[in-house]
Design brief:
The protein has three domains: 16-127, Fumarate Reductase Iron-sulfur Protein, Chain B, domain 2 (Orthogonal Bundle); 143-238 and 401-462, FAD/NAD(P)-binding domain (3-Layer(bba) Sandwich), CATH 3.50.50.60; 241-396, FAD/NAD(P)-binding domain (3-Layer(bba) Sandwich), CATH 3.50.50. The chain is built from 16 helices and 16 strands. It has helices spanning 16-19, 32-39, 60-68, 72-80, 86-92, 114-127, 151-162, 179-182, 191-203, 220-224, 257-265, 292-303, 324-332, 401-405, 436-439, 444-462; strands spanning 143-147, 166-170, 207-209, 231-234, 240-241, 254-256, 284-288, 308-312, 336-338, 341-348, 354-367, 373-377, 383-386, 389-392, 396-397, 431-433. The protein has a five-stranded parallel beta sheet. A five-stranded parallel beta sheet has the order 6-14-7-8-9. Strands 10, 11, 12 and 13 form a four-stranded antiparallel beta sheet that branches. The longest helix has 19 residues, at 444-462. Residues 468-472 have low confidence and may be disordered.
């Protein structure tokens, strides 16, 4: 009997000291030898429960088996039956909470590195180009408008194009990709990968129109009526930042994470003045929050020259929302973690620029509505934390523009568009939605799953059947 190595095959990474001033991708990726070693840790379960954790239903056992056999092209074909963005998902999916959490080895050994293997296959495919995108099944007369070019919109566009529909993606910004482009730093997701996946959709016939703000430039009603689209999918995401509501949030040098990362990722502010988008280059930075976005913002501030970057979080390390891998890498790069710390106001200098945070120490009390211990202030624990850059990374709310300008679209108390979770159908006939606009801020792969389900439902609707009665 062959023994299974108890831990994942190591993923090589750039040196932590060198990457403090480097925007290159941190994780280097598997070699063929490492990929084969990791794939052979998979026992090829008769019942592949790992697949239960994949929101888009990738045939994980089958693609890993192809890797075991050295058939990397075949592995790529298997993945692409369900996932058109494998190079992206292999880098940013929280696999530890999804497919890998269901791995049969969990509890005895580390799970198989499914995400790392998916990335390997996608990168192998990129370096061994084959013929273009999968051909359309048929060419249909109906056209579909996709609002937003994030992961939900791109997935819906891909599935509908392959089914033969004319698809137009409308994007408010000047470049396609949504949160994949503006929200995730280059060192975690190189933009060249996003560009390649967009190009692949173009080969399928998908048309992209940038600088179109649906709800202002054109409305949903106009898309359906005057422009003649047979259906609309709304994937506008959750790009409206949350703030703390404390004094000093309007000081110079205080950013929402959304603005900060958009300036750096999409508008290349890291190369100012080569690109004319300025951004504060800090000496001391403070990032409020402890999710994935907070880790991204902290690591960006380090690359922009911060001598000290503090991640400030009112709960403990055990309650943080960030992926463990990104938390570890932020620490390796020099981020300092101030757990059980709550900012109560931002303090200005003479020019109304932020100079410090006034904070309270906290302790954990009884569980709150989320089930996590409630942070409680410790009386008399006030202190100042010096910072000339503050990034507030406390999550986002759904983009309100489409709901506000589309009569008959039902929203819930959080501003999310109400949809049938199985189909993405909204309260407006012919209008579907999915991703963060319907769930609040979540993950790339969950948004992709929503885009896939909506595409299937739109196909059923346009062919005169019930929503979702024809698979995409």
């Amino acid at each position: 009997m062959t023994l299974i190595h108890p831990t994942k095959t190591e993923m090589p990474a750039l040196d932590p000291v060198a990457r403090r001033a480097c925007w290159d991708e941190v994780a280097v990726g598997y070699t063929v030898e490492r990929a084969l070693a990791e794939a052979r840790r998979c026992v090829q379960c008769q019942d592949p429960v790992c697949e239960l954790g994949c929101p888009v239903g990738v045939p994980i056992r089958d693609f890993v088996r192809r890797i075991q056999l050295g058939d990397f092209a075949g592995a790529a074909d298997v993945i692409r039956t369900r996932n058109l963005l494998p190079a992206i998902c292999g880098r940013v999916c929280p696999v530890e909470h999804q497919c890998e959490a269901h791995c049969a080895t969990v509890g005895r050994l580390e799970p198989v590195g499914i995400g790392r293997l998916e990335r390997f296959v996608a990168d192998w495919e990129r370096s061994h180009p084959r013929d273009g995108a999968t051909a359309r099944e048929v060419k249909r007369p109906e056209t579909v408008a996709i609002v937003g070019s994030g992961p939900a919109g791109l997935t819906a566009a891909s599935d509908l194009a392959r089914l033969g529909y004319g698809v137009t993606v409308f994007e408010a910004l000047h470049a396609v990709g949504g949160v994949l482009r503006y929200g995730i730093p280059e060192f975690r997701l190189p933009k060249a990968i996003v560009d390649e996946d967009v190009e692949r959709l173009g080969e399928l016939g998908v048309e992209f129109r940038t600088d179109v703000v649906v709800g202002k430039t054109v409305t949903i009603d106009e898309l359906l009526d005057e422009l003649g689209y047979a259906a609309v999918f709304v994937g506008t995401g959750a790009g409206s930042p949350k703030f703390m509501g404390i004094p000093g949030e309007n000081l110079k040098g205080v950013y929402s994470a959304n603005e900060y990362l958009t300036r750096v990722n999409l508008m290349r502010a890291y190369d100012f003045p080569g690109y004319d988008t300025p951004v504060k280059r800090p000496t001391r930075a403070a990032v409020i929050g402890a999710g994935d976005t907070a880790m991204d913002a902290a690591r960006v501030s380090i690359r922009l020259g911060a001598e000290e970057t503090h991640v400030v979080y009112r709960r403990s390390e055990a309650e943080m929302g960030a992926r463990h891998e990104d938390f570890v890498r932020a620490g390796e790069e020099g981020a300092i973690f101030d757990w059980l710390t709550l900012p109560v106001r931002f303090l200005p200098d003479a020019e109304r620029r932020v100079r410090a945070l006034e904070c309270l120490r906290m302790e954990l009390g009884e569980p709150d509505a989320s089930g996590r211990p409630r942070p409680v202030p410790i009386p008399g624990s006030e202190f100042e934390l010096e910072a000339n850059l503050v990034v507030i990374a406390l999550g986002t709310n759904p983009n309100p523009l489409v709901p506000q300008t589309t009569p008959g679209i039902e929203i819930d108390g959080h501003g999310c568009i109400v949809v049938d979770p199985e189909t993405g159908r909204t309260s407006r006939p012919g209008v579907y939605a999915g991703g963060d606009i319907s769930t609040g801020a979540a993950t790339v792969i969950l948004a992709m799953g929503a885009g896939r389900r909506a595409a299937s439902a739109i196909h059923g609707y346009l062919q005169g059947g019930s929503d979702g009665d024809v698979g995409a």
